[in-house]
Amino acid sequence: MGKVFLFDAAKCNGCRNCQLACKDEHVDNEWAPWAKPQPDTGHFWCRIDERVRGQVPKVKVAYVAHRCQHCGDAPCMAAAPEAVYRRPDGLVIVDPEKAHGLRELVEACPYGAIYYNEELDIPQKCTGCAHLVDAGELPHCVDVCPHEALRFGDEEDFAEEIAAAEALMPERAEADRPRTYYLNLPKRFLAGVVVDLEADEVVVGAKVTAEDLRSGEVMACEADEFGDFWFHQVAATDWRVYVEAEDYLTRVLEASTADEDRNMGPVALYKAE
Protein backbone atom coordinates (compact mmCIF):
# COMPACT_ATOMS: atom_id res chain seq x y z
CA MET A 1 0.00 0.00 0.00
CA GLY A 2 3.01 2.26 0.40
CA LYS A 3 4.14 5.09 2.63
CA VAL A 4 2.09 8.12 3.67
CA PHE A 5 2.52 11.33 5.65
CA LEU A 6 0.03 12.32 8.35
CA PHE A 7 -0.20 15.86 9.75
CA ASP A 8 -2.30 16.73 12.82
CA ALA A 9 -2.86 20.49 13.04
CA ALA A 10 -4.11 20.16 16.62
CA LYS A 11 -0.66 18.96 17.72
CA CYS A 12 1.46 21.50 15.83
CA ASN A 13 2.73 24.47 17.88
CA GLY A 14 4.55 26.16 15.02
CA CYS A 15 8.08 25.44 16.26
CA ARG A 16 9.15 24.83 12.63
CA ASN A 17 11.63 22.13 13.60
CA CYS A 18 10.48 20.25 10.51
CA GLN A 19 11.19 23.22 8.25
CA LEU A 20 14.68 23.64 9.71
CA ALA A 21 15.37 19.90 9.54
CA CYS A 22 14.58 19.90 5.83
CA LYS A 23 17.17 22.62 5.30
CA ASP A 24 19.67 20.81 7.48
CA GLU A 25 19.20 17.60 5.50
CA HIS A 26 19.23 19.00 1.98
CA VAL A 27 21.18 22.28 1.80
CA ASP A 28 24.72 21.56 0.55
CA ASN A 29 23.94 17.83 0.50
CA GLU A 30 23.41 15.72 -2.61
CA TRP A 31 21.44 12.52 -2.13
CA ALA A 32 21.83 10.74 -5.47
CA PRO A 33 19.82 9.58 -7.24
CA TRP A 34 16.98 11.29 -5.38
CA ALA A 35 18.00 14.93 -5.03
CA LYS A 36 20.58 17.58 -5.79
CA PRO A 37 21.41 20.12 -3.04
CA GLN A 38 18.63 22.50 -2.01
CA PRO A 39 19.45 26.23 -2.18
CA ASP A 40 20.07 28.10 1.06
CA THR A 41 17.07 30.35 0.52
CA GLY A 42 13.87 30.45 -1.45
CA HIS A 43 12.95 26.76 -1.22
CA PHE A 44 10.61 25.35 1.43
CA TRP A 45 10.16 21.67 0.67
CA CYS A 46 8.56 21.46 4.10
CA ARG A 47 6.82 24.67 5.16
CA ILE A 48 4.69 25.59 8.15
CA ASP A 49 2.12 28.29 7.42
CA GLU A 50 0.72 30.38 10.26
CA ARG A 51 -2.95 31.34 10.21
CA VAL A 52 -4.11 34.08 12.60
CA ARG A 53 -7.87 33.87 13.03
CA GLY A 54 -10.60 35.89 14.71
CA GLN A 55 -10.77 39.39 16.11
CA VAL A 56 -9.16 40.78 19.27
CA PRO A 57 -9.47 39.62 21.98
CA LYS A 58 -10.79 36.30 20.62
CA VAL A 59 -7.86 35.25 18.47
CA LYS A 60 -6.52 31.81 17.62
CA VAL A 61 -3.35 30.87 15.77
CA ALA A 62 -3.24 27.67 13.73
CA TYR A 63 -0.35 26.05 11.90
CA VAL A 64 -0.60 23.96 8.75
CA ALA A 65 2.15 21.99 7.01
CA HIS A 66 2.55 22.56 3.28
CA ARG A 67 4.61 19.99 1.42
CA CYS A 68 4.55 17.63 -1.53
CA GLN A 69 1.41 15.50 -1.29
CA HIS A 70 3.08 12.52 -3.03
CA CYS A 71 -0.15 12.13 -4.97
CA GLY A 72 -1.42 8.81 -6.24
CA ASP A 73 -2.28 10.59 -9.51
CA ALA A 74 0.37 13.29 -9.38
CA PRO A 75 -0.16 16.26 -11.72
CA CYS A 76 3.62 16.67 -11.97
CA MET A 77 3.96 13.11 -13.26
CA ALA A 78 1.32 13.79 -15.89
CA ALA A 79 3.14 16.98 -16.92
CA ALA A 80 6.56 15.31 -17.30
CA PRO A 81 6.33 11.50 -17.22
CA GLU A 82 9.87 11.24 -18.52
CA ALA A 83 11.27 13.11 -15.51
CA VAL A 84 8.92 12.41 -12.59
CA TYR A 85 8.21 8.94 -11.24
CA ARG A 86 6.72 7.13 -8.28
CA ARG A 87 8.80 4.71 -6.25
CA PRO A 88 7.30 1.37 -5.20
CA ASP A 89 6.78 2.81 -1.71
CA GLY A 90 4.69 5.67 -3.13
CA LEU A 91 7.17 8.54 -2.83
CA VAL A 92 7.07 10.77 -5.91
CA ILE A 93 10.49 11.81 -7.18
CA VAL A 94 11.57 14.52 -9.61
CA ASP A 95 14.61 12.95 -11.27
CA PRO A 96 17.40 15.55 -10.90
CA GLU A 97 19.16 14.29 -14.02
CA LYS A 98 16.15 14.10 -16.35
CA ALA A 99 14.33 17.25 -15.19
CA HIS A 100 16.86 19.83 -16.42
CA GLY A 101 15.11 22.89 -17.78
CA LEU A 102 11.58 21.71 -16.95
CA ARG A 103 10.50 24.98 -15.37
CA GLU A 104 6.87 24.20 -16.23
CA LEU A 105 6.78 21.64 -13.42
CA VAL A 106 6.59 24.50 -10.91
CA GLU A 107 3.21 25.51 -12.33
CA ALA A 108 2.07 21.91 -12.78
CA CYS A 109 1.84 21.40 -9.02
CA PRO A 110 -1.45 22.81 -7.64
CA TYR A 111 -0.05 22.63 -4.10
CA GLY A 112 2.87 24.97 -4.73
CA ALA A 113 5.29 22.26 -3.60
CA ILE A 114 7.74 22.39 -6.53
CA TYR A 115 10.47 25.04 -6.64
CA TYR A 116 12.98 25.96 -9.32
CA ASN A 117 16.70 25.86 -8.61
CA GLU A 118 18.05 28.59 -10.86
CA GLU A 119 21.68 27.68 -10.29
CA LEU A 120 21.23 24.02 -11.18
CA ASP A 121 18.44 24.70 -13.71
CA ILE A 122 16.17 22.01 -12.28
CA PRO A 123 12.80 21.81 -10.49
CA GLN A 124 13.03 20.42 -6.96
CA LYS A 125 10.71 19.29 -4.18
CA CYS A 126 10.39 17.05 -1.13
CA THR A 127 11.68 13.54 -1.75
CA GLY A 128 10.27 12.16 1.49
CA CYS A 129 13.94 11.87 2.45
CA ALA A 130 14.04 8.75 0.28
CA HIS A 131 17.70 8.20 1.18
CA LEU A 132 16.77 7.93 4.86
CA VAL A 133 13.70 5.79 4.21
CA ASP A 134 15.88 3.36 2.25
CA ALA A 135 18.14 3.14 5.31
CA GLY A 136 15.18 2.25 7.52
CA GLU A 137 14.95 5.72 9.07
CA LEU A 138 12.24 8.37 9.23
CA PRO A 139 12.29 11.50 7.06
CA HIS A 140 14.24 14.14 8.98
CA CYS A 141 11.21 16.45 9.31
CA VAL A 142 9.21 13.68 10.98
CA ASP A 143 12.06 12.59 13.21
CA VAL A 144 12.47 16.04 14.80
CA CYS A 145 8.77 16.81 15.43
CA PRO A 146 8.51 16.99 19.25
CA HIS A 147 4.73 16.48 19.39
CA GLU A 148 4.23 13.87 16.65
CA ALA A 149 2.21 16.38 14.68
CA LEU A 150 3.96 15.05 11.57
CA ARG A 151 4.17 11.30 11.12
CA PHE A 152 5.23 8.93 8.37
CA GLY A 153 4.82 5.23 7.82
CA ASP A 154 2.97 2.43 6.12
CA GLU A 155 -0.54 3.31 5.03
CA GLU A 156 -2.10 0.33 6.79
CA ASP A 157 -0.62 1.43 10.12
CA PHE A 158 -2.54 4.71 9.90
CA ALA A 159 -5.84 3.23 8.69
CA GLU A 160 -7.90 4.64 11.57
CA GLU A 161 -6.45 8.14 11.26
CA ILE A 162 -6.76 8.14 7.47
CA ALA A 163 -10.44 7.25 7.75
CA ALA A 164 -10.96 10.46 9.77
CA ALA A 165 -8.55 12.61 7.74
CA GLU A 166 -9.12 15.20 5.05
CA ALA A 167 -7.16 16.60 2.14
CA LEU A 168 -5.30 19.89 2.15
CA MET A 169 -7.25 20.87 -0.97
CA PRO A 170 -10.53 18.91 -0.84
CA GLU A 171 -11.53 20.09 -4.30
CA ARG A 172 -8.54 18.21 -5.76
CA ALA A 173 -8.62 15.10 -3.59
CA GLU A 174 -10.51 12.88 -6.03
CA ALA A 175 -8.37 13.84 -9.01
CA ASP A 176 -4.94 13.81 -7.36
CA ARG A 177 -5.40 11.20 -4.59
CA PRO A 178 -2.90 12.94 -2.27
CA ARG A 179 -1.00 10.70 0.14
CA THR A 180 -0.35 13.37 2.74
CA TYR A 181 -3.33 13.25 5.09
CA TYR A 182 -4.51 16.00 7.44
CA LEU A 183 -6.27 15.87 10.79
CA ASN A 184 -7.94 18.79 12.57
CA LEU A 185 -7.40 21.38 9.86
CA PRO A 186 -8.63 24.72 11.24
CA LYS A 187 -12.24 25.53 10.48
CA ARG A 188 -14.25 28.47 11.79
CA PHE A 189 -14.93 29.43 15.39
CA LEU A 190 -17.79 31.43 16.90
CA ALA A 191 -17.11 33.11 20.23
CA GLY A 192 -18.04 35.94 22.56
CA VAL A 193 -18.41 36.96 26.19
CA VAL A 194 -21.65 37.21 28.18
CA VAL A 195 -21.86 40.28 30.43
CA ASP A 196 -24.17 42.09 32.83
CA LEU A 197 -23.37 45.73 32.11
CA GLU A 198 -25.42 47.07 35.02
CA ALA A 199 -23.56 44.89 37.53
CA ASP A 200 -20.26 45.28 35.66
CA GLU A 201 -19.83 41.49 35.80
CA VAL A 202 -19.61 38.58 33.45
CA VAL A 203 -22.44 36.04 33.52
CA VAL A 204 -20.84 32.74 34.44
CA GLY A 205 -22.74 29.64 33.32
CA ALA A 206 -24.98 31.41 30.80
CA LYS A 207 -26.31 28.93 28.24
CA VAL A 208 -25.41 29.77 24.66
CA THR A 209 -27.14 27.93 21.81
CA ALA A 210 -26.07 28.35 18.17
CA GLU A 211 -28.40 27.33 15.35
CA ASP A 212 -26.99 26.86 11.85
CA LEU A 213 -29.47 28.72 9.65
CA ARG A 214 -28.55 26.63 6.61
CA SER A 215 -28.46 23.10 7.98
CA GLY A 216 -30.56 23.45 11.11
CA GLU A 217 -27.81 21.94 13.25
CA VAL A 218 -27.88 23.13 16.87
CA MET A 219 -24.95 23.34 19.29
CA ALA A 220 -24.85 24.50 22.89
CA CYS A 221 -22.26 25.45 25.49
CA GLU A 222 -21.97 27.41 28.72
CA ALA A 223 -20.07 30.61 29.45
CA ASP A 224 -16.97 29.81 31.50
CA GLU A 225 -15.64 31.52 34.63
CA PHE A 226 -14.60 34.49 32.48
CA GLY A 227 -17.98 34.72 30.77
CA ASP A 228 -16.44 33.44 27.53
CA PHE A 229 -18.16 31.02 25.18
CA TRP A 230 -16.56 29.21 22.27
CA PHE A 231 -17.80 27.01 19.45
CA HIS A 232 -14.77 25.46 17.75
CA GLN A 233 -14.45 23.84 14.32
CA VAL A 234 -17.81 25.07 13.08
CA ALA A 235 -19.08 25.44 9.53
CA ALA A 236 -18.67 28.53 7.37
CA THR A 237 -22.31 29.59 7.61
CA ASP A 238 -24.83 31.93 9.22
CA TRP A 239 -26.00 31.49 12.80
CA ARG A 240 -28.83 32.44 15.14
CA VAL A 241 -27.46 32.62 18.67
CA TYR A 242 -29.59 32.37 21.83
CA VAL A 243 -28.08 33.50 25.13
CA GLU A 244 -29.97 32.80 28.34
CA ALA A 245 -29.36 32.71 32.08
CA GLU A 246 -31.46 32.47 35.22
CA ASP A 247 -33.11 35.77 36.16
CA TYR A 248 -32.14 37.32 32.81
CA LEU A 249 -34.02 38.03 29.62
CA THR A 250 -33.00 35.81 26.71
CA ARG A 251 -31.04 37.50 23.93
CA VAL A 252 -31.34 36.39 20.31
CA LEU A 253 -28.65 37.55 17.90
CA GLU A 254 -27.36 36.67 14.48
CA ALA A 255 -23.75 36.14 13.48
CA SER A 256 -21.88 34.82 10.47
CA THR A 257 -18.79 32.68 10.05
CA ALA A 258 -19.30 32.50 6.29
CA ASP A 259 -16.20 34.55 5.50
CA GLU A 260 -14.11 34.37 8.67
CA ASP A 261 -13.99 33.31 12.30
CA ARG A 262 -16.34 35.43 14.37
CA ASN A 263 -15.88 37.11 17.73
CA MET A 264 -19.33 38.41 18.68
CA GLY A 265 -17.80 40.59 21.38
CA PRO A 266 -19.70 41.38 24.59
CA VAL A 267 -23.25 40.01 24.63
CA ALA A 268 -25.16 41.96 27.28
CA LEU A 269 -27.93 40.33 29.29
CA TYR A 270 -30.47 42.32 31.24
CA LYS A 271 -32.31 41.33 34.38
CA ALA A 272 -35.90 40.18 33.99
CA GLU A 273 -38.45 42.48 35.60
Please provide a written account of the structure.
The structure is a single chain. A hairpin with a 5-residue loop joins strand 4 and strand 5. Strands 10, 11, 14 and 17 form a 4-stranded mixed sheet that branches. The protein has a 4-stranded antiparallel sheet with strand order 13-12-15-16, with no helix packed on it. It is 14% helix and 35% strand. The relative contact order is 0.17. It has 7 helices and 17 strands. The chain has 273 residues and is an alpha+beta fold.
Structural domain tally? 2
Strand content: 35-45%
Q: Using the coordinates shown, work out and report the CATH topology of the largest domain.
A: Alpha-Beta Plaits
Main sheet record? 4 strands, mixed
CATH class of the largest domain: Alpha Beta
Total DSSP E strands: 17
**Could you give the distance between the termini?**
67 Å
**What CATH architecture of the largest domain do you see?**
2-Layer Sandwich
Sequence of secondary-structure elements: EHEEHEEHEEHHEHHEEEEEEEEE
- Total helix count? 7
Mean pLDDT: 97
Helix content: 10-25%
